[in-house]
Design goal:
Layout (H helix, E strand, L loop, with lengths): L1 E5 L3 H13 L3 E5 L2 H10 L4 E4 L8 H10 L6 E5 L4 H10 L3 E4 L4 H15 L6 E4 L2 E4 L4 E4 L2 E3 L3 H12 L4 E2 L1 H8 L8 H15 L4 E4 L3 E4 L7
Parallel strand pairs: 1-2, 1-3, 3-4, 4-5
Antiparallel strand pairs: 6-7, 7-8, 8-9, 10-12, 11-12
Helix pairs in contact: 2-3, 6-8, 7-8
């Protein structure tokens, strides 16, 4: 999953980004409202962590601009402003959740996971596709109850696909959502990871849709 962190405090944005990357997210950063607005308009994010008190352009204005342009990615407002009126303003601008500084990083991560699940239409943190089960809280994978060890990139790929179960996802979409902006993206790498993932899972749940990409579905057959 790919996240945008918008924060002007250099220590906090570094801490947030490092934590999210450790948890398996691809992370882009913006330190002012203008840069954030641009990235949110042109890049496909699964979640955004947005500070309100930003230089150049405040967070509420950034969020209103995104929503007016049809950008629907989940947005978690992160700010030191705790008055109820400011929370209302954030939600009215299109925020999906709100967390006041100081905060516990574990709570932030839990809220982000919940936002991503809800955006994909999932209520439970445990997602299933036939015999494959992915626990998005613990980032663990089992097949027929047996634990499967995946690399970080393999898990990112599987997590994105199971969040979008039964939907066709292109190689380009997968590349955009599992790598950050600065990564040297090569869509051929996706084919390699899909091949490795299929071998490790040992069950036919990742279907190739010729000319379009892949679809994860129970008992899928490659075509």
């Amino acid at each position: 999953m790919r996240a945008l962190v918008v924060e002007d405090d250099p220590d906090l944005i570094r801490q947030l980004s490092e934590t999210l990357r450790t948890e398996g997210y691809a992370v882009d950063q913006a330190t002012d409202g203008e840069e954030a607005m641009y990235l949110g308009e042109v890049e496909p994010y699964d979640v955004v962590v947005l500070d309100l008190g930003l230089p150049v352009m405040d967070g509420v204005s950034v969020l209103k601009s995104w929503r007016s342009k049809g950008r629907a990615m989940p947005v978690l407002i992160l700010t030191a402003r705790g008055q109820w009126s400011e929370k209302v303003a954030g939600f009215d601008a299109g925020a999906d959740d709100y967390l006041t500084k100081p905060f516990q990083m574990e709570e932030l991560l839990a809220r982000i996971r919940a936002l991503i699940r809800r955006a994909a239409g999932h209520a439970s943190p445990v997602m299933r596709c036939g015999p494959v089960e992915v626990d998005t809280n613990s980032a663990t994978v089992t097949v027929n109850g047996e634990s499967i060890k995946l690399t970080g990139h393999e898990y990112k790929l599987l997590s994105y696909m199971i969040h979008h179960l039964n939907k066709i996802v292109s190689r380009t979409e997968l590349t955009e959502h599992i790598y950050d902006q600065d990564f040297d993206r090569d869509s051929n790498t996706i084919e390699v990871f899909v091949g490795r993932l299929r071998k490790k899972l040992g069950v036919d749940v990742i279907k190739t849709v010729r000319g379009l990409g892949y679809r994860m579905e129970p008992d899928g057959e490659a075509s």
